[in-house]
Write a structure and sequence with these properties.
mainly alpha; 4 helices
């Protein structure tokens, strides 16, 4: 994935501004998803009342989203 970011950013066709804009939109979407899953897990009684497999799924999803978010932010910081 790193090579794709670097190649598009260094492109001679002037796609860098558009690419940076799209990356920032992707960061915003990921941030929204992280907030939604966090709010779900923080609801009073959700962890206690929901089936364990759903709680674990949400926790795993939160970890995965945070990892993706950090990777994209890191790549965006390199390009900016």
């Amino acid at each position: 994935m790193n090579w794709m970011f670097e190649r598009l950013a260094a492109s001679r066709y002037g796609v860098r501004p558009t690419f940076l804009y799209l990356c920032s939109l992707f960061v915003a979407c990921l941030s929204t998803e992280v907030c939604e899953v966090s709010v779900e897990l923080e609801k009073p009684g959700y962890v206690d009342k929901a089936p364990a497999h759903l709680v674990e799924r949400d926790r795993a999803q939160l970890v995965e989203l945070n990892d993706k978010l950090e990777k994209v932010k890191g790549q965006l910081a390199k390009l900016a």
